[in-house]
C-alpha cells in the first residue's frame, strides 16, 4: 500500500503495509514513515502525542490496543521487528532503536559493517519511563517498569522495576516476583544448576535445561533485585570464571543476598588435588584429577579457569565482606540426595572410603 498524508501538521508516508485504525489519535508534528520493505500495524485506541517520529524503511512494528507514545518518542529502523503488547505506556523522549551493527571487521568501513537483526518485545502493561533507550534484542516483560533515562541492553523480567545505565532490576512491582511461593517463605537460588534439579530452589543457568527458571549469565544477575535471596547454592561454578573475573562474580552473588543470607559454595579443592597427585599421579586418567583441574570440556561452558584452596577462598570471601565462613557437610543439606560435584570423591563415586575432592564452604552476608 502506498499513501501519503499531511493533515493537522501530521505527516504519514507509507509505501509498504500501513494499518492505522480510525480510533488512533495522532498528535501534531508526528512523522510516520513506512518504506516499501516496512510494515506498520497499529492496534485499536493507540495514542501518539505530538512530535513522535517513526521510521520503518525495513522491518516491522505491531502494537496491541491502548498503547500510548509520549511526546518526542523516536522509533527507528526495527529490522528485527518491534512487538508491543496491550496497555503499554511509552513515555516522552523514549528511543527505540532496531538496527545495530554486527561484529566489527577492520577491513570494512562503518557503513559496510553487517547488520544484526534482533527483535524488541514490549509485553502487556509495560511502562517505559521518560528518555529511556531500548536496544535491539531485549524483551520488556509484562507489567515491568523501566525508569527514566535507563539504557536497556538486556531483557527485563515481568513485574519488576528496573532503572539505570545499564538498566538493572532493583525490586519487584506490587509485591509480585520472579519466585514462586515456598513453604517457608524463603528464596533459594541454585546458580549454575546444569542438569541438576533441587525441589524448592529457583534454578539459573546459561543453558536452557527444562527445569531452568531463568536462562542467564550467572555472573550478571541483572534480572534479580538487591537483597532478594536467603540462600545461594553454586556447586562447582566459581572455577569457571578467570582470575580477574571471579571476585566480581562473588560480589554480584553477594548483592542479591539478603543481609544474613548464606552463600553455599563448592569448588574443586586444589590442595587435595595436589596431595593426590603427589601420591599417585594421574592414575585415574580423564575421570580423575584432570577433570577436576581442567573441567569436563564437553561444551563451551565446561572449562575451568581458576583454582582454590580453603585459605585462599576464605581470604577472598572475607575481602568482599562475607563473614562466618566455614565448611559444610553435603550429607546435612536439603539437597543431600542430589548427586552433584559437591559430593565428588576419588576414586570416582566412592563416597564411603574415597577422598572428598570438593571444597565446600558457606559464608554469610
UniProtKB/TrEMBL annotation:
InterPro entries: Hexapep, Hexapep_transf_CS, Hexapeptide_acetyltransf, Methyltransf_11, SAM-dependent_MTases_sf, Trimer_LpxA-like_sf. It holds the Pfam family Hexapep. Residues 214-263 form the Methyltransferase type domain. Keywords: Acyltransferase, Repeat, Transferase. It is an enzyme of class 2 (transferase). Its EC number is 2.3.1.18. This is Galactoside O-acetyltransferase. It comes from Thiorhodovibrio winogradskyi. The lineage of its organism: Bacteria, Pseudomonadati, Pseudomonadota, Gammaproteobacteria, Chromatiales. The gene is lacA.
Amino acid at each position: 500500500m502506498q499513501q501519503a498524508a499531511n493533515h493537522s501538521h501530521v505527516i504519514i508516508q507509507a509505501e509498504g503495509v500501513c494499518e492505522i485504525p480510525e480510533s488512533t489519535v495522532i498528535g501534531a508534528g508526528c512523522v510516520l514513515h513506512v518504506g516499501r520493505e516496512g510494515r506498520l500495524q497499529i492496534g485499536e485506541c493507540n495514542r501518539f502525542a505530538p512530535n513522535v517520529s517513526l521510521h520503518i524503511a525495513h522491518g516491522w512494528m505491531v502494537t496491541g490496543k491502548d498503547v500510548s507514545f509520549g511526546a518526542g518518542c523516536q522509533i527507528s529502523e526495527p529490522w528485527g521487528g518491534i512487538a508491543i503488547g496491550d496497555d503499554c505506556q511509552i513515555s516522552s523522549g523514549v528511543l527505540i532503536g532496531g538496527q545495530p551493527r554486527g561484529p566489527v571487521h577492520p577491513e570494512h568501513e562503518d557503513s559496510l559493517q553487517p547488520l544484526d537483526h534482533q527483535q524488541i518485545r514490549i509485553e502487556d502493561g509495560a511502562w517505559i519511563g521518560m528518555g529511556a533507550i531500548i536496544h535491539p534484542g531485549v524483551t520488556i516483560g509484562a507489567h515491568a517498569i523501566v525508569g527514566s533515562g535507563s539504557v536497556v541492553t538486556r531483557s527485563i523480567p515481568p513485574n519488576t522495576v528496573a532503572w539505570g545505565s545499564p538498566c538493572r532490576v532493583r525490586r519487584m512491582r506490587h509485591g509480585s516476583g520472579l519466585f514462586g511461593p515456598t513453604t517457608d517463605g524463603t528464596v533459594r537460588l541454585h546458580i549454575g544448576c546444569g542438569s541438576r534439579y533441587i525441589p524448592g530452589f529457583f534454578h539459573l543457568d546459561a543453558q536452557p535445561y527444562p527445569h531452568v527458571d531463568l536462562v542467564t549469565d550467572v555472573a550478571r544477575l541483572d534480572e534479580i533485585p538487591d537483597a532478594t535471596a536467603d540462600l545461594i547454592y553454586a556447586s562447582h561454578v566459581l572455577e569457571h570464571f578467570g582470575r580477574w573475573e571471579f571476585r566480581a562474580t562473588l560480589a554480584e552473588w553477594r548483592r542479591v543476598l539478603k543481609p544474613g543470607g548464606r552463600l553455599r559454595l563448592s569448588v574443586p579443592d586444589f590442595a587435595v588435588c595436589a596431595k593426590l597427585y603427589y601420591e599417585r599421579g594421574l592414575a585415574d586418567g580423564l575421570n580423575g584429577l584432570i577433570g577436576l583441574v581442567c573441567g569436563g570440556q564437553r561444551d563451551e561452558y565446561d572449562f575451568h579457569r581458576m583454582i582454590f584452596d580453603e585459605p585462599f577462598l576464605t581470604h577472598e570471601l572475607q575481602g568482599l565482606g562475607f563473614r562466618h565462613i566455614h565448611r559444610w557437610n553435603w550429607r546435612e543439606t536439603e539437597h543431600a540426595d542430589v548427586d552433584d560435584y559437591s559430593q565428588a570423591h576419588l576414586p570416582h563415586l566412592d563416597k564411603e572410603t574415597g577422598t572428598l575432592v570438593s571444597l565446600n564452604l558457606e559464608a554469610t552476608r
